[in-house]
């Protein structure tokens, strides 16, 4: 195996099998667990200023690292359950985003794509 997502998916399958957890890993449950982990990631930044959030100490950075890993692992497990190729899905989504957010229209703006109309060159 050379695909890191495949390798991690295989490892996660083994991990769940060894613990008899596959019975709990329905797509619904994995999606719910993912939101919990994402909230724990947000908690690492709660009440911090923009500057503080970019200048984490070692303990804070370690906690963020762990939560990012938890989020990614749940994403990999969910994708594996649904037979979704994460790398392909990401590349396809990047193409869609490039279409929704043409650089010449959105450069320097944080507005949502629905603000921009086709043919609107502003």
TrEMBL record:
Q: Which GO terms describe its molecular function?
A: nucleoside triphosphate diphosphatase activity
Record InterPro entries: dCTP_Pyrophosphatase (IPR052555), DCTPP (IPR025984)
Q: Which BP terms in the Gene Ontology apply to this protein?
A: nucleoside triphosphate catabolic process
> What's the name of the protein?
Nucleotide pyrophosphohydrolase
